[in-house]
Amino acid sequence: MVKFFRKIRQKMLTENKFSKYLLYAIGEIILVVIGILIALSINNWNENKKERKEEYQALKSLHSEFIESRKRFNSNQGHNKYIFDGMRNLLKILDENRATENLADSIYINLNISSWSSATFEPSRGIINSLINSGKLNIVSNENLKVRLVQWNDEVINFQNWQRLAQDYKFTYLFPLISKATVLPSKIKIHDSDVEYNRNEEINDRDIDLSIVNSKEFYNYLNQCWVYSLTILEKEKDEQKSPGKKIRESLDNIIFLIEKELEKK
Length: 265
Fold this sequence. Notes:
This protein is mainly α. It has ten helices and no strands.
């Protein structure tokens, strides 16, 4: 093909047909440019197709990861709510001046529940961290989803900090008073399958120092622990959006956006 065009050019030059040669040369240049543009267009199409395939696989992996994180969050909220309900029950008893021997069993049970360790939310973050660290998060074409994914880690860290603050406060101030007020149930008896555990017997054998439970110090520390719970637990009526509420909304919104993008693929 190259020899063919070369012969035409040489023939035009020998015949002194310069104007025709010039038009031919321009046409040849245009054809070359068109060929280059077509090649670039095909290459861009192939690259775009490759990126969309990578995006689809990333979105599928992210969807599985955030579904798992939502399950963990639900479990985390359930565990912490059980503990904070114990604190709330104690506060109700104290607010109503009913911390007497008549309610000793209930007080003992809720003191035990209130002493439990709160769980820290640990979402699954392998995929999202891999995409961010490798710089491949840009393959996500939905800008709204991309922004939410970038913000996710900061929201998790903020929520975890609130959880640790609540946990540290409780074990620094409230737990020592609970330890002085009563002897908590044996964890070995509860969790060791080789040891027979009788919950009612444990409760009946309890001895509570109600003077500690009724003290201003105990009430104030317990009350503050309950305040911290409001930042961790998601509330239906939460105008200021607690960290717990923000985590719930972020999880739901990210999963919703990912599913919408997957439907388009």
